[in-house]
Amino acid sequence: MSELQLQREGFSAEEIARLRELRDAYPYIEYVDTRREWHHLRFVKWLYARGQFKS
User: Fold this and answer.
1) What is the pTM of this model?
2) Which end of the chain is more exposed for a tag (fewer CB within 10 A), N or C?
3) Cα–Cα distance for residue pair 2/6, rounded to 1 Å
4) Which residues contact 19 (CB under 8 A, 6 or more apart)?
5) Helix/strand/coil (H/E/C) assignment for every residue in the chain
6) pLDDT tens digits, 27-55
């Protein structure tokens, strides 16, 4: 989302700056991979708990 879009949504300049800092601190691709892996592990745990996971 662009800075202009954020302003239109009501974000202040300080909030936009903080969002930019967070984005730079956590590269998107690493976050997605970590989140995808976390969801996958939760799903496998759910299957195992129900006796549906076979290794």
Assistant:
1) 0.47
2) C
3) 6
4) 6, 11
5) CCHHHHHHCCCCHHHHHHHHHHHHHCCHHHHHHHHHHHHHHHHHHHHHHCCCCCC
6) 555 555 677 777 887 887 788 788 876 64
